[in-house]
């Protein structure tokens, strides 16, 4: 996107790009959706298909989905190198309503958007992905603590340049507690970097 475009022109270009991607993606033999942690692939299969009629092989960097009774052209439904590594032991598949095959892939790197499922299929522009809003309560303890610290530091910075960040606050609180524990010591000449 160029810096000389108006916001409306930028939005129009994004819209046109999304439309072109949607047309390309519609030509694929499957539909797919992703979060940062996983990819879900949905394929139509002939009515009456059961699990035993399908061959699904999920390897760390490769996916193969085929019907045991090959289609007229004998080609697998999907076969190729995955964009990135998955955790094969955490991946699953199922036949639903005897007409839809769902393949669930757990990404090994759960902080990366995929431009495509298999590398020889047309990519999407991952910069146009608008992730769902998440809540702090959805995060694990360690990540939540880091995010809360960053938010605190950001608020302190935004309120005033005089407000200390969380590390400085923690150091100051530790120093004050030490002073209370040792009233016999003279801290009047102490210099502390915060």
Automatic annotation (TrEMBL):
SUPFAM superfamilies named among the record's database cross-references: HSP20-like chaperones
Biased composition (Polar residues): 157-166
Transmembrane parts of this sequence: none
Annotated keywords: Cytoplasm
Biased composition (Basic and acidic residues): 168-185
Gene Ontology MF term list: unfolded protein binding
Localization terms from the record: Cytoplasm
One GO process term, biological-process aspect: protein folding
Stretches for region Disordered: 151-194
Domain CS stretches: 25-118
GO cellular component annotations of the record: cytoplasm
InterPro entries from the UniProt entry: CS_dom, HSP20-like_chaperone, NudC_fam
Superkingdom of the organism of origin: Eukaryota
Pfam families xrefs: CS
Function: Required for nuclear movement. May interact between microtubules and nuclei and/or may be involved in the generation of force used to move nuclei during interphase.
Protein name according to UniProt: Nuclear movement protein nudC
Source taxonomy: Eukaryota, Fungi, Fungi incertae sedis, Zoopagomycota, Kickxellomycotina
């Amino acid at each position: 996107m160029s810096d000389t475009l108006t916001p409306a022109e930028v939005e129009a270009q994004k819209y046109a790009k999304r439309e072109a991607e949607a047309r390309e993606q519609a030509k694929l033999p499957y539909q797919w959706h992703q979060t940062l942690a996983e990819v879900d692939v949905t394929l139509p299969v002939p009515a009456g298909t059961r699990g035993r009629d399908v061959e699904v092989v999920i390897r760390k960097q490769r996916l193969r989905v085929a019907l045991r009774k090959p289609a007229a052209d004998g080609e697998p439904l999907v076969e190729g190198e995955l964009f990135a590594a998955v955790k094969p032991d955490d991946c699953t598949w199922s036949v639903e309503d005897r007409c839809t095959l769902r393949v669930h892939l757990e990404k090994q790197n759960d902080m990366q958007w995929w431009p495509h499922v298999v590398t020889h299929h047309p990519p999407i522009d991952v910069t146009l992905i608008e992730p769902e809003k998440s809540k702090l309560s959805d995060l694990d303890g360690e990540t939540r603590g880091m995010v809360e610290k960053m938010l605190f530091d950001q608020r302190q910075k935004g309120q005033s340049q005089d407000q200390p960040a969380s590390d400085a606050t923690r150091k100051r609180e530790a120093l004050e507690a030490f002073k209370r524990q040792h009233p016999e010591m003279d801290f009047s000449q102490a210099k502390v970097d915060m």
